[in-house]
Amino acid sequence: GEFDWNEFTQAKIIGSFYWGYIWSQIPGGRVAETLGASEVVGISMLIAAILNLVLPAAADHDYTTLIAVRILLGLAEGATFPALQVLMANWAPPQERSWLLTLVFMGSKFGIIIAYPTAAALIKIWGWKATFYVPSIVTLFWCVLWKSIVSNTPNEFRWITQYEKNYIAASIGDTVR
């Protein structure tokens, strides 16, 4: 390939994402509880998109730079799943929560199913760097949509009816926080 990295170096590069990911799980959930889950998810994904854009340049520079970027990428993305849990706790009535969480987290698995053939097509058409640029650009658009649509609680959401707010509030009661 393009890079002369032995198996040990490749393993360090692949694993480095998780070195960051593991450290932002608990803080990500706590920050989501205090500052707002939609902000944590949105900012995490924005940072991840930006880091993904610079990842090919980091790889071209040297593998230690690539490892550093992947650690930062893991730190950014590690906060998303705990923040989504907080978001669902604020929105989903307890009797519907497990079903809704299943749908939300199933989306990440569905994304993997879509990503592999899409990555293969991108590599064939534009080369390996496109597998970072294209998803990053899509994620940047997603961040704009997320910021304009998602809110932390039903009370903050502008397109919800009073009936829906009352239903969610009555269902959740004191179960949140």
Automatic annotation (TrEMBL):
State where the protein is found. Membrane
State the protein's name: Major facilitator superfamily (MFS) profile domain-containing protein
Record-annotated membrane-spanning stretches: 40-59, 71-92, 98-123
Topological relation to the membrane, as annotated: Multi-pass membrane protein
Q: Name the GO cellular-component terms.
A: membrane
* Protein keywords: Membrane, Transmembrane, Transmembrane helix
Is Coiled coil included in the keywords of this UniProt record?
no
One Gene Ontology biological process: monoatomic anion transport
Residues in Major facilitator superfamily (MFS) profile domain copies: 1-177
Chief subcellular location equals: membrane
| GO MF term (any one) | transmembrane transporter activity
Q: Which Pfam families does this entry report, sorted A to Z?
A: MFS_1
Superkingdom, natural source:
Eukaryota
